[in-house]
Design brief:
Radius of gyration of chain A: 24 Å
Oligomer: heterotrimer
CATH class of the largest domain in chain C: Alpha Beta
CATH class of the largest domain in chain A: Mainly Alpha
Helix content of chain A: over 70%
CATH architecture of the largest domain in chain A: Orthogonal Bundle
Structural class of chain A: mainly alpha
Shape of chain C: globular
Number of helices of chain C: 19
Helix content of chain C: 25-40%
Chains: A mainly alpha (317), B mainly alpha (326), C alpha/beta (618)
Number of domains of chain A: 2
Number of helices of chain A: 12
CATH superfamily of the largest domain in chain C: P-loop containing nucleotide triphosphate hydrolases
Strand order of the largest sheet of chain C: 6-7-8-3-9-10-12-11-23
Distance between the termini of chain A: 8 Å
Distance between the termini of chain C: 28 Å
Largest sheet of chain A: none
Largest interface: B-C, 52 and 82 residues
Order of helices and strands of chain A: HHHHHHHHHHHH
Strand content of chain C: 15-25%
């Protein structure tokens, strides 16, 4: 068990190292002079040299990288080129919106996807299966941003033209200020984010459940005289949890990608929006910071998933 | 050990019946085609894809027919007095966008981008995934450890963020999009193929070939690859829609195809900017529907291919089965 | 007292290509406290039948009537049927590993049966489960209550299944191949446990199996199914003494245990019919040695004999007594090994794998612990052992496919570990392997011609037309139709596939063939065909066989000498007859004691026809 954890932690460190090396190298070989971005177009050559030495840009790359790593380990991610604010605090400010979106979305997608999959598998070949399968296909095919734009049009713009406000057009309101307002602002982003992933989970649940329902131990459960409901929920679904959890680990990256797009569509001031803005501004410290933070998030989530896996499958203990 | 049915007795009876049926002697290809042709949804999807291909390759014809260039701005005829885009009408069958460009012509040229990126990126990603998967699965040992870890590594990267970083450095472009998509999607195929190869190489027929003296290349080529055709076909087909969406997403974020060259994602991005689509619905409905229908068609085709290529004998459901109702 | 009565039971399974007629008009009754055996080969409908009457097969169309405790099971509401399953009808399945839920503790799985059917507290349920576990022979039941299935051995898991089926003391237990997945010695323990429980509790047991030897030991009455039809039902004694239906007689005759070693076994020719088309005449007629013109024209009537046997057959006095078979020619001369060097020799062969993960690889798992073995040209050496004894691993080592970690193997005077690549290629032509699973050992995506032609392709021999001619010759030699050259393996039955595997192994004219459980996956009637084929090929081509099996009867029939393996060691090695007459090792005695074959039918039949009806209409 301890060896297993150590292995996972080692891999997590490797991921973060590779990721940081990748972005760092990327920006080092990239054209463009960071000093000029910091100073603006009117800076003199002397000012540029001064800035380079302030930022340590005149040192060899390995030295730069090492000092970056040692500072990053303490939570210091440098300063934005654009407005000279600390990157860490810039990101920190944006985290509530993204976390609200991602965590709420995950819960919602599991709550939608799994029941649809169960419904579909239990009535395989029937009408409810067709409905479930159609949901799966459409959900899988709907590009997030198209869905977002369409739901904004339908649930914000049309009602507003009719004279009332059904949902706000976007924006983020803090949870602590008023949970209701918070949730009301997030309803559209959540549903948009969730449809695609819920479809993935519905399909996975359906497939796994169909497979499990053909297993010998399900026949045993039926032979014991259990009702079909108990057979499905206590025996079959229990066995499908492990592959679902595995998939959850693999989908964290997908989720972050979805969050970026959603933040863009609904004007949520989250980390993803910050990253897109930074890319447009060539604000490299922010990009590096966000990429590393995303990696960290994925890595932690993966370790959590692995632990959950061990809890779920007694054969691994 | 000995005989006796394992698993569901019903399935075994079916399998027995199938293997004993001597009348059937069709090749697997014709059987697959027959099953696919019976599947109306798949045939519809295939028809849509063919039409889309024709539409994309006929983009210059569309341009000639309407007389509108995809990047020209028709500020006189294509915009209202207030500077808003005009809706569908005789001159612009699908309306104009916020700069007065013809949406129909841009849609046709955008289809080229989507299909090109979708098909090309999936083929490339499938090739990479296949090679890595076969190597890792067949060779095993440290090669497997290294390649599997590499796949894990790529999968735990926040791919859209990394794509953003990459694009911000290299500047947007078609081939960069393709590269980014290939780099972050080959792992799907890689993992599937690896798992498949690992289970195949434990099968007796591979052991049999080895005991006959077959070398690794012969085993890979004659024993393993033919058995991978189903996952390869199915997963490549299913990778196309995700590559198309990936490309559209990049373009939507302004990181894909460089404007003013038309792409579906870019058209949607233009529509989203300043919320112009709220007053001009066609700006989101036309490219949005095209995108949705295309991915839907490829997904349906992929599912249909999976069912046709790898049919599992399942008892057909009748309303009157006597088990406990759920 | 009749506990269960099925009348005219018809089960249809709709599938993509039509309807599988799994059982066609089967009637039987089970009395309280008896053991009722249902026997048949795979595809005979024996499992479908019992699972259909308890409503366990989805999508099956079931008609007829099944009366249990005065109620028709086929008309019961789903909820009532659930109430019967588990409490009144217990079920035991074949594979105890896959039949237990991997993620729930065994105690919880058994207690669940109690909770579903009775209102009891957790502590009370636990007490009863522990008592039951103790009764079926689980040591330390209170502690093992919280263990998961993977922490038990195969035999122990089957005991858990039995505890689960019996915990509510149902009057009827259906056991579907309860011992098939187990080792011979464990099989015997499970069967005596079942028998014990029946005597103790008066439980009626429906025992479904393909193993007639097993039935002959404990069944009171036996029903024989063939292609979904009840061809014979009779009291156990009369069925095994003088089978009334030619199929039953043929089944008993094809068991290798009844034949003097070296003789031909009487196989049943052909193979079972497709179930997609319901038969209009006798289903067995095409394979029957006693078929008359009427058999292929009209459905057979039901004959009732004075000894209680009922057979679905046109013969008026039952199957003819088998003519005493004359041995086919003189028994083959025993290979002499005076002075001649052995073709294959193993000296002190050891094989071990490191256990544990990357860092903590301290222990080593020993699979083979010093094997000495010699094989002379022209002989058949049997290698017998239970699962985990290392017999298949030894085969891989002897074939040169797995390197040893100690000792060495010599083939025709050359040590395998010292071979260069040319020597290795030559070895691969000389030593061939035939695998157990005829479904897994043929590549499903390649045509049979290509599969049998593989040895030529790999060694660069006989190209184009020449290769095709070679392949057709091989197909003919093993009894396949050369016209089927272009078919895929899935279009052949199990026995035919094994013939394909044998043809492939013989393509390069090897001197040694290693047969790894070559008939274990086949039905008895097909087994006999393959064993006869192997024997005649050995005679014609002068082959040397290493025959691996868990089945002593088969090994005794085929082999000149037998090596008994246990836990990576050869505990006994002697001539076949010596081992049977004077088993030296305790383990050999245990194996011999546990294996059982059905009694040989009496040579003279004394039975009288009592009644002929057309009761079975469909």
């Amino acid at each position: 068990m301890i060896r297993f954890l150590a292995g996972r932690l080692g891999f997590a460190a490797l991921v973060l190292f590779c990721l940081s090396a990748f972005v760092f190298l990327l920006f080092f070989v990239a054209p463009g002079d960071p000093a000029r971005m910091v100073a603006g177009d009117k800076a003199t050559e002397a000012q540029l040299i001064q800035i380079r030495s302030n930022l340590g840009l005149d040192r060899p790359i390995l030295v730069q990288y090492a000092s970056f790593l040692s500072r990053a380990a303490t939570g210091d991610l440098g300063f934005s080129y654009r407005n000279q604010q600390p990157v860490a605090s810039l990101i920190l400010n944006r985290i509530p919106a993204t976390v609200s979106l991602v965590v709420g979305g995950t819960l919602l997608w599991l709550a939608i996807g799994i029941p649809i999959g169960v419904m579909s598998a239990c009535h395989v070949g029937g009408l409810r299966d067709r409905i479930g399968q159609s949901f799966i296909l459409i959900g899988l095919s709907f590009p997030t941003f198209v869905l977002g734009m369409m739901s904004l049009y339908l649930f914000y713009f049309l009602p507003r033209q009719a004279g009332f406000t059904l949902f706000p057009p976007g924006g983020y309101k803090p949870l602590l200020a008023d949970p209701l307002v918070w949730a009301w602002h997030l309803v559209l982003p959540w549903t948009t984010l969730v449809l695609v992933t819920a479809a993935i989970y519905a399909r996975l649940t359906r497939g796994q459940l169909l497979q499990v329902l053909g297993e010998d131990y399900i026949r045993t459960a039926r032979a014991k005289g259990l009702s079909e409901r108990v057979v499905v929920y206590r025996h079959a679904l229990r066995a499908t949890l492990t592959p679902l959890v595995t998939q959850l680990g693999a989908d964290i990256a997908l989720l972050l990608g979805g969050a970026i797009v959603i933040e863009q569509v609904y004007g949520l001031q989250g980390v993803g929006a910050l990253a897109v803005q930074a890319v447009k501004n060539q604000d490299r410290p922010i990009i590096i910071g966000v990429v590393l933070l995303g990696g960290l998030f994925i890595v932690i989530a993966n370790i959590a998933v692995d632990l959950l896996y061990v809890v779920l499958d007694p054969r691994l203990r | 050990m000995s005989v006796a049915p394992t698993g569901d007795a019903a399935f075994d009876a079916v399998r027995q019946a199938e293997t004993r049926d001597e009348v059937v002697q069709r090749g697997s290809a014709s059987l697959t085609l027959r099953r696919l042709r019976r599947d109306k949804a798949s045939m519809g999807a295939l028809a849509f894809i063919v039409v889309l291909l024709a539409f994309a390759s006929a983009a210059p014809l569309v341009e000639a027919w309407t007389g509108h260039s995809p990047i020209a701005q028709y500020r006189q005829s294509g915009m209202t007095a207030m500077g808003l885009p005009v809706g569908p009408r005789a001159e612009f069958p699908l309306g104009t966008d916020h700069l007065g460009r013809d949406v129909l012509v841009r849609l046709a040229y955008g289809a080229r981008v989507s299909l090109l990126v979708g098909v090309f990126a999936s083929l490339a990603a499938a090739t990479v995934g296949l090679s890595v998967g076969v190597l890792a699965g067949y060779l095993g040992g440290w090669v497997d450890v290294v390649l599997s870890r590499a796949m894990d590594l790529v999968m735990s990267v926040p791919f859209l963020l990394c794509a953003l970083a990459l694009v911000s450095v290299c500047g947007p472009g078609l081939w960069l999009s393709v590269g980014v998509i290939v780099f972050f999607t080959w792992t799907t195929m890689g993992r599937v193929v690896r798992a498949e190869v690992v289970s195949l190489s434990r099968r007796d027929f591979v052991r049999a070939s080895r005991s006959l003296g077959a070398g690794p290349l012969s085993i890979m080529g004659h024993d393993i690859l033919p058995n991978l055709s189903v996952p390869i076909i199915v997963y490549t087909t299913l990778m196309i829609p995700s590559a198309i969406v990936f490309e559209a997403t990049l373009s939507f974020l302004g990181l894909g195809i460089v404007p003013p060259a038309p792409s579906w994602g870019g058209m949607l991005s233009d529509a989203a900017a300043n919320g112009i689509y709220l007053v001009a619905w066609w700006l989101v409905v036309v490219p949005g529907a095209a995108l949705l229908m295309t991915t839907l068609a490829f997904n349906i085709l992929g599912d249909g291919l999976r069912d046709a290529l790898d049919p599992k004998p399942r008892p057909i459901r009748r309303a009157s089965w006597r088990g406990a109702p759920p | 007292m009749t506990l269960l009565e099925a009348r005219d039971l018809v089960v249809r399974l709709p599938v993509e290509d039509g309807v599988v007629h799994a059982t066609q008009g089967v009637s039987f009754s089970v009395a309280a406290g008896e053991v009722f055996g249902i026997a048949g080969e795979s595809g005979s409908g024996k499992s479908v039948l019992t699972q259909a009457l308890t409503g366990l097969i989805r999508g099956a169309q079931v008609s007829g009537s099944v009366t249990f405790q005065g109620r028709n099971l086929l008309r019961l509401a789903a909820r009532d049927l659930c109430g019967l399953r588990g409490s009144q009808i217990g079920m035991i399945f074949q594979d105890p590993l896959s039949s237990l839920h991997p993620f729930h503790t065994i105690g919880r799985q058994i207690a669940e049966v109690i909770h579903v059917h009775e209102r009891v507290g957790g502590a009370e349920a636990r007490r009863r489960v522990v008592a039951m576990l103790d009764r079926v022979g689980i040591a330390d039941p209170d502690k093992r209550f919280d263990d998961y299935p993977h922490q038990f051995s195969g035999g122990m898991r089957q005991r858990v299944m039995i505890a689960m089926a019996l915990v509510l003391n149902p009057p009827l237990v259906i056991a579907d191949e309860p011992t098939t997945a187990l080792d011979v010695t464990v099989q015997a323990q499970i069967i005596s446990l079942l028998d014990e429980m029946r005597r103790e509790r008066g439980t009626a047991i429906v025992l479904i199996t393909h193993d007639l030897g097993l039935l002959s030991r404990i069944a009171d009455r036996v029903m024989i199914l063939y292609a979904g039809q009840r061809v014979e039902i009779a009291p156990s004694r009369s069925l095994f003494a003088q089978p009334a239906h030619p199929y039953t007689a043929a089944l008993l005759r094809s068991s290798p245990g009844h034949h003097s070693p070296g003789g031909e076994i009487a196989p049943i020719p052909g193979r079972p019919p497709s179930l997609l088309v319901p038969s209009r005449a006798c289903v067995f007629a095409p394979r029957c040695t006693e078929a008359m013109p009427i058999c292929v024209a009209r459905k057979p009537p039901l004959r009732l004999f004075d000894d209680g046997a009922r057979a679905l057959c046109w013969l008026e006095d039952g199957a003819r007594a088998p003519a005493p078979r004359t041995p086919a020619g003189a028994p083959p001369p025993r290979p002499s090994r005076g002075g001649e060097a052995p073709i294959l020799e193993a000296e002190g062969v050891r094989l071990s794998y490191p256990t544990g993960r990357l860092l903590g690889g301290r222990g080593r798992h020993e699979v083979l612990r010093g094997i000495d073995l010699a094989l002379w040209r022209g002989e058949t050496l049997g290698l017998v052992g239970e699962s985990g004894s290392g017999k298949s691993t030894l085969a891989q080592v002897l074939a040169g496919l797995v390197p040893t970690t100690g000792g060495h193997v010599t083939f025709e005077g050359k040590r395998l570990d010292g071979l260069d690549s040319r020597g290795w290629t030559a070895l691969r032509r000389q030593v061939q392997v035939v695998f157990q699973d005829p479904f897994g050992s043929l590549n499903p995506r390649r045509r049979v011609g290509a599969i049998i032609g593989d040895p030529f392709r790999i060694h660069g021999l006989a190209k184009g037309q020449a290769r095709k001619a070679e392949v057709r010759g091989l197909m003919e030699m093993v009894g396949l139709d050369p016209e089927h050259y272009n078919r895929f393996p899935s279009e052949f039955s199990g026995g035919q596939r094994q013939r394909i595997g044998i043809a492939r192994a013989l393509a390069l004219k090897p001197s040694l063939v290693i047969l790894d459980e070559p008939v274990s996956a086949l039905d008895v009637s097909i087994q006999a065909q393959i064993l006869n084929l192997l024997r005649s090929l050995q005679r014609d081509l002068g082959l040397t066989y290493l025959f691996i099996s868990h089945d002593l009867a088969v090994v005794r029939h085929v082999c000149d000498r037998i090596a008994v393996m246990r836990a990576g060691e050869i505990v006994e090695l002697a001539d076949t007859e010596d081992i049977h007459a004077r088993p030296g090792h305790l383990y050999t005695r245990m194996l011999l004691g546990a294996s059982h074959t059905a009694p040989i039918p009496a040579a003279v039949h004394t039975r009288r026809l009592v009644e002929t009806t057309n009761e079975v209409a469909t």
